[in-house]
Design a protein that fits this description.
Layout (H helix, E strand, L loop, with lengths): L2 E2 L2 E2 L12 E2 L8 E9 L5 E6 L2 E11 L2 E9 L5 E9 L2 E6 L2 E3 L8 E3 L14 E4 L19 E2 L2 E2 L1 E2 L14 E2 L4 H6 L1 H7 L3 E4 L3 E2 L10 E5 L25 H8 L1 H20 L3 E6 L71 H15 L7 E4 L9 H18 L4 E4 L16 E2 L2 H13 L16 H12 L4 H4 L3 E3 L8 H4 L7 H4 L10 H13 L3 E5 L25 H16 L2 H4 L1 E8 L2 E7 L3 E8 L6 E5 L11 E9 L2 E3 L4 E3 L5 E5 L3 E8 L4
Parallel strand pairs: 12-17, 12-25, 15-16, 17-20, 20-21, 21-22, 22-23, 24-25
Antiparallel strand pairs: 1-2, 3-4, 4-7, 5-6, 5-8, 6-7, 8-9, 8-11, 9-10, 13-14, 18-19, 26-27, 27-28, 28-34, 29-33, 30-31, 30-32, 30-34
Length: 687
């Protein structure tokens, strides 16, 4: 144990979970009990520093090695800030959300946002991300055809070999995965144990990634259902999409759009019947140049059921939706601003159009309401929306209020790189895709790789100090309710596959070729990552195919098809086992977190609540076993307790056989094989 002037530092603990803040997510003007843990008989006074007040705390209970000091406070209607002062004689320390400190820093204070309540189902939910075109082809009649239309100056093409790697310039390739395919595989997803599906965009769009939306009101019939089809492919030498009669009919026919929306509704209902939530992707910073509001490609121009697009005429009702650099260039005004200069991605100009604001908010409401009742939105590049920070926050406040009014249990998750705290104060985003406080630290520690496989850093591989320092800092930028539903991914559609990162090879498909992404991989390191993913605070989010051993460089190579019939069965079995462990242990969803041990290539941490404690130990050393003594007393495991092994993964395989460990003097002593991870549990007697 370490002491600072007699205070036992490792005993000090508090956080925003219900054991230390009750209720954990209070409403406005509600009474809350706040608790601080110290070593027993190791403080002469504990004081709550509550906003500008000093409130004395009293011992509410003593258990094992600890005293628990508590005090009741009434929260207000705005954010309340607090930390704890621990005094032993003349010695004084402060404790805030980043741990022990000598002085108060408001930026590090615990914070209560009254009324910021997140759905319980999302805390620690096991989410499965599906890039629909690459998951499963359930309906070949809706497949994109060769030369059906042109995209960025080339014809689109249909891929007939499901197992073909994506081309370097593969944005126009379509493999045929669709919503019927997801329906067909719901049984697989249910057996895997997932609790929610996050879909990459499913709305009408000309690209396979569909982040260039063409129609927010309708599911793309190429993913949905085509009941009204016709001939009309482009000629070999024709790139003019106003001639793409087959495509125009497919994506503008009301019969096709209605049938596709109905099929998506069927998917949602069948998923819900299995207890699986559905989250959809909202791309609202920009749309696509094909969009009916712009109609740069004249898809809607000749259809009397649609208004004229802003590209076509100055009289379009959508002109104010976009920023045109030349306000007199009609007809065919191509001076619109593209997001990051991309002509296929016209940036939406919300500040100029209240009608646009209302339309997009209505879209947010539509899909979480009857009949669709989706369970949440993932927001693409959400911090970029608008032209100012002030407007951005104002818009998301309106969006949040509208969506929650229609479906209080719907969640709002944002894609965001960097500090998200400005949006996580209640009333904008519920949480984010967790790059900074999960994907990056895990990747650096286990592989030494940057998340795009663009860099290998020897000094980061196995660097436990860098791992815990990054985690501690970035986790402190979240409030607890946001942290526990953050999407903890190892891979996704924007970064290399984690299994490829285990080869510690810098490269992309255009420099190394697709086959190199499969070479030199280490499934045993992948299993270590899965152990961390399923035990770390947050919502473990599996990118389709990770569980089956899919490799790949960053996009487009990370968007390979799911290998039906060619899965890595041992890895799939391991994922199922770890998902089961995660779901069966509530402490892994909502329990407290504490670092326990760090050394080169070795980390240990605990998850604990009043009923149980789970300890995770990872040895990433590929050359030698390690003996380690873990201070499990810090996560409430009593002396002489018996702990049970839930899983052990090593370089050579996996064991789920029961093994018991005796805790002596508060320490768990382990011999860790090379490249191994333990999950070990203690359950309070009587539970």
């Amino acid at each position: 144990m370490s002491e600072q002037n007699g205070i036992i530092l490792e005993a000090l603990y508090s956080d925003g979970t219900k054991d230390y803040r009750n209720p954990a997510e209070p409403l406005k003007m509600q009474m809350v009990v706040l608790t601080m843990r110290t070593a027993r008989d190791n403080a002469t006074a504990v004081t709550l520093l509550w906003n500008e007040e000093r409130l004395p705390m009293t011992i509410s209970r003593s258990e094992g090695r600890f005293d628990y000091y508590s005090v009741c406070v009434n929260v207000g209607s705005e954010t309340d800030y607090y930390c704890f002062e621990i005094r032993l004689g003349e010695q004084v320390l402060l404790y805030d959300k980043r741990g022990i400190t000598d002085y108060r820093n408001n930026d590090r204070d615990f914070a209560i946002m009254p009324g910021f309540v997140t759905p319980d189902w999302a805390k620690g939910a096991v989410i499965y991300q599906i890039f629909v075109d690459r998951f499963y082809n359930g309906d070949e009649t809706n497949d994109v055809e060769d030369r059906e239309y042109a995209y960025i100056n080339k014809h689109v093409n249909k891929v007939t070999d499901w197992n073909k790697f994506p081309d370097t310039d593969g944005i126009r390739e379509f493999y045929g995965g669709d919503i019927k395919g997801v329906i067909d595989k719901l049984g697989y997803l249910h057996e895997l144990g997932i609790e929610a599906i996050y879909f990459n965009p499913i709305f009408v769009s000309p690209s396979n990634h569909k982040y260039d939306i063409q129609d927010y009101d309708n599911v793309d019939p190429h993913l949905g259902k085509i009941v009204n089809d016709r001939d009309g492919l482009l000629a070999e030498d024709d790139l003019d999409n106003s001639h793409a009669e087959k495509y125009i009919n497919r994506v503008t026919s009301k019969a096709n759009l209605d049938a596709s929306n109905e099929l998506f509704l069927e998917l949602v209902q069948k998923a819900h019947a299995l207890g699986i939530k559905v989250i959809i992707d909202g791309v609202f910073n920009h749309c696509g140049s094909f969009h009916k509001w712009m109609d740069f490609e004249r898809i809607y121009d000749k259809n009397p059921d649609y208004e004229k697009g802003a590209f076509i005429t100055k009289e379009s009702p959508y002109n104010e939706y976009f920023s045109f650099h030349n306000g007199e260039a009609w007809p065919n005004n191509d001076s619109f601003e593209g997001w990051w200069g991309h002509r296929t991605l016209p940036k939406l100009n919300y500040e100029q159009s209240e009608d646009l604001v209302n339309r997009v908010i209505a879209i947010g409401e539509k899909w979480v309401s009857e009949p669709y009742c989706v369970d949440g939105w993932r927001l693409d590049v959400a911090a970029d929306l608008g032209y100012s920070s002030e407007f951005n926050h104002s818009f998301w406040q309106k969006f949040y209020k509208a969506v929650k009014a229609k479906n209080p249990d719907a969640i709002i998750l944002a894609e965001h790189y960097g500090d998200p705290s400005a949006w996580l104060k209640g009333g904008e985003w519920d949480s984010v895709m967790n790059y900074d406080a999960f994907m990056e630290p895990v990747t650096w520690f286990l592989t030494g790789m940057q998340k795009h496989s663009d860099e290998f850093a020897t000094h980061m591989l196995g660097n436990s100090d860098a791992f815990f320092d990054a985690m501690n800092y970035h986790m402190s930028r979240y409030n607890t309710q946001s942290l526990y539903m953050a999407m903890n991914e190892l891979s996704n559609h924007d970064h290399s596959r984690f299994l490829t990162r285990t080869n510690r090879m810098v490269g992309r498909i255009e420099t190394m070729g697709a086959e190199a992404a499969n070479k030199g991989i280490h499934p045993e390191v992948m299993r270590e990552a899965i152990v961390i993913q399923m035990t770390w605070p947050g919502a473990p989010t599996i990118y389709y195919g990770d569980e089956a051993g899919v490799c790949g460089w960053t996009d487009p190579d990370n968007r390979r098809t799911y290998p039906w019939g060619h899965e890595d069965i041992s890895l799939l079995k391991f994922y199922k086992e770890l998902i089961r462990i995660h779901k069966e242990n509530e402490v892994l969803r909502t329990g407290s977190y504490k670092k326990l041990y760090g050394a080169y290539n070795l980390i240990a941490y605990g998850r604990f609540d009043k009923n149980s404690s789970i300890v995770v130990v990872v040895n990433n050393d590929e050359n030698s076993s390690r003996y380690v003594e873990i201070p499990v007393w810090e996560v409430n495991v009593p002396d002489n307790a018996v702990m049970e092994r839930l899983v052990l993964t090593t370089k050579y395989g996996v064991s789920v056989d029961n093994q018991e460990f005796m805790v002596e003097d508060g320490y768990l002593r382990l011999d860790m094989p090379e490249v191994s991870a333990y999950i070990i549990k203690y359950t309070l007697e009587g539970e």
